[in-house]
Design goal:
238 residues; 4 helices; 43% strand; six-stranded antiparallel beta sheet; 21% helix; alpha+beta
């Protein structure tokens, strides 16, 4: 569990750094270029609650690119009834081509980096749903398909950039993932939650692993299904 949390924290820090780079590049861009002005994203939570964003409320973070791939994260920010809702794919490496992509890739270990974060007016995080937590509380197998982020990209183009040391990308499509959250006290899960997981781990030594790793009811876990549609054109750092 600690390894997964550490990995997610590193991912979140990298994504935050990329968003800062994008914001800096946008600030230096000529006004008539309007980066992200045409970008839109709409998300549905559990098939019911809907959020949408456009322009600068939609972000494309990047860790750079090669001639055939780009590492990026798609995200949006929306405000509703005194709450801020942030949704992101986390950082993924994609071929610069339309197609359907899964993270982690089938047959490989890892967890979805997608997240859905809810904050209050004081910018305090109230609930932080992550794909990694979904894998811990709800995955029914080591490589449960329901624990993956899926991107279906219908358009992926690279265009001439208007800012030095950036690349303009234009892509459209959908993504979806499951995410979970469990409240903690002093950074720790409930005692009953962790003790039960330890006991199950000890009794299953030498046997196939038991799933989910943690009992969601004992841990007070909650889950959401996030489904989003996007159409973005934006400069990202090379």
């Amino acid at each position: 569990m600690n390894r997964n949390l550490m990995g997610w924290c590193m991912l979140a820090a990298a994504l935050a750094g990329c968003q800062e780079q994008v914001a800096q590049a946008s600030a230096n861009e000529p006004k008539d270029a309007a980066p992200g002005a045409a970008s839109t994203m709409s998300c549905i939570i559990d098939g019911a609650t809907a959020f949408s964003a456009s322009g600068k409320k939609v972000s494309v973070a990047s860790l750079g690119s090669t001639p055939g791939t780009v590492s990026l994260g798609l995200g949006m920010h929306a405000a509703s009834i005194g709450r801020a809702h942030d949704i992101s794919t986390g950082l993924v490496e994609l071929p610069i081509a339309p197609g359907s992509y899964q993270f982690p890739k089938p047959g490989t270990a890892g967890a979805s980096g997608g997240f859905y974060r809810i904050r209050n007016d004081a910018n305090e995080t109230l609930e932080d749903y992550t794909g990694s937590a979904y894998g811990q509380f709800y995955a029914l197998a080591e490589q449960d398909p329901q624990a993956r982020l899926v991107l279906d990209i219908t358009r992926f183009q690279t265009l001439p950039a208007s800012v030095p040391k950036t690349q303009r990308i234009s892509l459209a499509g959908t993504f979806r993932f499951n995410a979970a959250y469990a409240a903690k006290a002093d950074g720790k899960l409930r005692d009953a939650c962790t003790l039960e997981a330890i006991q199950r781990s000890m009794t299953s030594q030498g046997k196939p692993g038991l799933y989910p790793r943690f009992n969601p009811e004992l841990c007070g876990a909650k889950q959401h299904r996030i489904e989003c549609k996007f159409d973005v054109t934006q400069d990202v750092p090379l």
